[in-house]
Write a structure and sequence with these properties.
This protein has about 290 residues and is α/β, with parallel strands linked by helices. The protein is built from nine helices and 15 strands. Bound molecules: ribose-5-phosphate.
Length: about 290
């Protein structure tokens, strides 16, 4: 028997995934003590194969309880323990950009590898490291992609759209979306000067009169989307929409993106958000069955 173990704040996604798998679903019960520590309670007996669902948006709050839950799950019978983390944080810090910076991707990956036999995620920000297997050394790492499903959604909503990646890193996702949907695509160049300071230079491809859809993996502060949308509008795009796998939209991101003239934002349900338009549940369920 297999079991899906989830946290209360991901109830909706957990229910959909458990249903798609035909597996029982159990919850990690949390009690937060006044001093900030957390008491966790798991089902007293876990099956040999237990899969923990935990998206790592707001990672610092979630990591300690996740690692405690994993250690507890092993003690309670989970011989094979897998993590489904639809959004895997810390993937962008994949090198020391300035001397002394900690390469968090490497260390988070090793930490997860020390607790889980496999880690399944969706569109992790892999750029300088090619595969999830490298992120979780010695374990099974699976990177699924919502880009083809987002591409198909875009093709239905905006036939003939021109898909734009706002930066070189997003080239992989725009290409996958364009290929699945038979749409044109091009890649912009981005310069980031700070959390909120971003410049995007559009590619040579003419955008005047085109319905442009910006495709990226993550919308965090939204400033990448804002800069790309403003550039496309300045060059006469007929409309600008956005398709992202992970709609984090922190702080004023949503308002900024909308005020940059973006018409629709479509995201996947890897991160729950009002913009969710395509589901990663079928991908996750298939991957878990194949890991079987
Ligand atoms: C970085 O290269 C990513 O692909 C995203 O473009 C970036 O993380 C988006 O961040 P923000 O929304 O803060 O501009």
């Amino acid at each position: 028997m297999s079991l899906l173990l989830a946290f209360d704040d991901e109830e909706a996604l957990a229910l959909r995934l458990a249903q798609a798998l035909g597996w029982p679903l159990a919850r990690v019960e949390l009690h937060r003590f006044p001093d900030g520590e957390t008491r966790l309670r798991l089902p007293p007996r876990l099956p040999a194969r237990t899969v923990v669902l935990r998206g790592l948006q707001q990672p610092n709050d979630k990591l300690a309880p996740l690692l405690l839950a994993a250690a507890g799950a092993r003690e309670l019978g989970a011989e094979r323990l897998e993590l489904v983390s639809p959004y895997l944080a810390y993937m962008r810090q994949d090198m020391a950009f300035t001397p002394g910076e900690v390469v968090s991707q490497r260390h988070l990956g090793r930490l997860l590898a020390s607790h889980f036999d496999a880690v399944v995620t969706v569109d992790p920000h892999l750029h300088r490291v090619a595969t999830m297997d490298e992120v979780v050394p010695g374990r099974r790492g699976l990177a699924l992609s919502a880009a083809p499903a987002l591409g198909l959604h875009v093709a239905r909503e905006v036939p003939g759209a021109l898909l734009l990646a706002p930066d070189e890193e997003a080239g992989q996702w725009v290409q996958a979306a364009a290929q699945a949907a038979g749409l044109d695509h091009a890649v912009c160049r981005k310069q980031r000067y700070g959390d909120l300071e971003v410049e995007v230079a559009l590619p040579d491809r003419p955008v005047a009169g085109r319905a442009v859809v910006i495709v990226d993996d993550v919308a965090s502060t939204g400033r990448t989307l804002v800069a790309a949308a403003q550039g496309a509008r300045a060059q006469g795009a007929a409309s600008v929409d956005v398709a992202v796998t992970h709609g984090l939209f922190v702080g004023d991101a949503w308002a900024q993106v909308k005020s940059a003239g973006v018409r629709h934002v479509w995201s996947s349900d890897a991160v729950p958000h009002a913009s969710n338009a395509v589901s990663v549940v079928p991908l996750l369920a298939l991957a878990l069955r194949q890991l079987g």
